[in-house]
């Protein structure tokens, strides 16, 4: 390829037309793009929250209480994993915590030995009996008292085991962390929820919608958090107010745009998620 030649005339150097075109095109590409003042910006609405409700531990699905489209309150029971073994263990712990026959018998034995010890002390004070007998009786009373205390501690441990089992049973119950609408039931009765894929139900909060507009920096700089904006749904030509929730503090270097998140109140699910909304700054 031949090297472009420069034409020299008097004191000035003139570049050939091809080289001038390349330079001008590069300068135009490097110049920032300014949208016209009347530009509009589109975004799509999304649920205010989308929660993939996960099981706290693996297990087989025993019962499903909801189906897609169901409205649920916060803490509503969505699904239950099998807990038969835990419930059987709990029944044993309850029996152990309620059993009093062992404690009663040990207390009776302690009272008998304590009475015998007191009799030996009286006899010893009268010169009868031996010091070894008194010492032996005192030791037996203390051991009997410790046996009663041990039985009471076992009863207390059984009560604590019940509380632990109840907590583990509660972990088998999958509840919604938010009020919303069930959009998908991922696991069905009989399926196994694995630790690597713990999602069981998807719940969305549509009481409000969110949308993220990507605006030129000069437009975003004129906005502030908490400001109310007027939006429009092009499909229905409905106008709606939105509140700015967040403005990205950093401009995207490639696009020169700034993300601006807005929230749209959606009482009674008046507006659908996934619709296009338009902003005219």
Automatic annotation (TrEMBL):
It comes from the Bacteria. GO terms for cellular component: efflux pump complex. Residues 1-30 form the signal peptide. Coiled coil: none annotated. The keyword Cell membrane does not apply. The keyword Signal applies. InterPro entries: MdtA-like_BSH, RND_pump_MFP. Keywords: Signal. Residues 50-203 form the Multidrug resistance protein MdtA-like barrel-sandwich hybrid domain. GO terms for molecular function: efflux transmembrane transporter activity. PANTHER family: HLYD FAMILY OF SECRETION PROTEINS, MULTIDRUG RESISTANCE PROTEIN MDTA. Belongs to the membrane fusion protein (MFP) (TC 8.A.1) family. This is HlyD family secretion protein. It comes from Rosistilla carotiformis.
